[in-house]
Amino acid sequence: MGGGRALLAASVISIQNSCFTYPACQNCCSRLSLDSRRFNCLKCGHTGEVKDARYRYRLSLKVADTNELFDITVFGSCLDPFFGITAENLQRYIQDLNHLSGETNKDASPGVLIQAVETCFIGKRFIFGV
């Protein structure tokens, strides 16, 4: 593909990782660095309390058109219709499920969610703006 913007019609081959949300800077959308009580954006310097961190969707996919394979990452609220809720609410749901199941990684996606995402995307054809 060239250096400009293009549309790519491709089928999803696989989901590349199981973390579908990330804590995002409200100023620049970069991933926040979290500790037990505070967050910090390494890109723009924005800081705050962890309880105030906002989450954003990040879905990494392996896709194929008729000739090539591509790694594509889809960000943001365009994924709200597929998940049925905002990234913020999904993250709360994940944390609640992990708390109930005793999972120590509070950001790990439950297996049932991973299966649902795979069912929704793998084998389906989408048009991606790249």
Automatic annotation (TrEMBL):
Entry GO CC: cytoplasm; nucleus
InterPro entries, alphabetized: DDIAS, NA-bd_OB-fold, Rep_factor-A_C
Biological processes per GO annotation: negative regulation of intrinsic apoptotic signaling pathway in response to DNA damage
SUPFAM superfamilies: Nucleic acid-binding proteins
Gene3D superfamilies the record matches: Nucleic acid-binding proteins
Pfam family, one: Rep_fac-A_C
Superkingdom of source: Eukaryota
Domain Replication factor A C-terminal: 9-95
Protein name (Swiss-Prot/TrEMBL): DDIAS protein
The organism of origin for this protein: Nothocercus nigrocapillus
